[in-house]
Task: inverse folding
């Protein structure tokens, strides 16, 4: 059953990627602007990671009765980056088209950003392996 779930997720991601490429072709034909690029993927990874970190920081501070402002500031910065992306998309196209495609962009990038952040975490864990320390003089 696990294999079927993995195959279903892989097929869904493949179809989602195909949808993103079709939407990108349409936007490029209509406005000569691509919504789904490596740069926007990196921006959305930053947005989602900072929003998650800010939220966790806020919840942790609430539980420990510490300063909650740090988490709020990180979430606001994440929102401002998203707002800047939306404004840039709207300036590059028409208002309604840019707004709708920004929302579609934000929704479609979620699964790829989650997978990307997990891959980055595993890569960091793999490349920062701890080595044994030997004590010579006891």
Result:
């Amino acid at each position: 059953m696990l294999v079927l779930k993995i195959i279903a997720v892989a097929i869904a991601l493949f179809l989602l990627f195909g949808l993103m490429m079709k939407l990108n072709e349409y936007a490029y034909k209509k406005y000569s602007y691509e919504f789904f690029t490596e740069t926007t993927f990196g921006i959305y990874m930053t947005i989602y990671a900072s929003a998650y970190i800010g939220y966790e920081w806020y919840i942790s501070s609430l539980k420990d009765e510490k300063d909650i402002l740090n988490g709020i500031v990180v979430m606001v910065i994440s929102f401002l980056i998203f707002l800047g992306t939306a404004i840039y998309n709207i300036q590059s196209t028409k208002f309604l088209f840019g707004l709708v495609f920004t929302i579609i962009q934000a929704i479609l990038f979620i699964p790829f950003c989650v997978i990307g952040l997990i891959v980055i975490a595993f890569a960091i864990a793999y490349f920062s392996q701890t080595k044994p320390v030997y004590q010579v003089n006891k």
In short: DSSP finds four helices and no strands in the chain. Residues 123 and 129 are 10 Å apart (CA to CA). Helices lie at 2-31, 38-64, 69-92, 95-127.
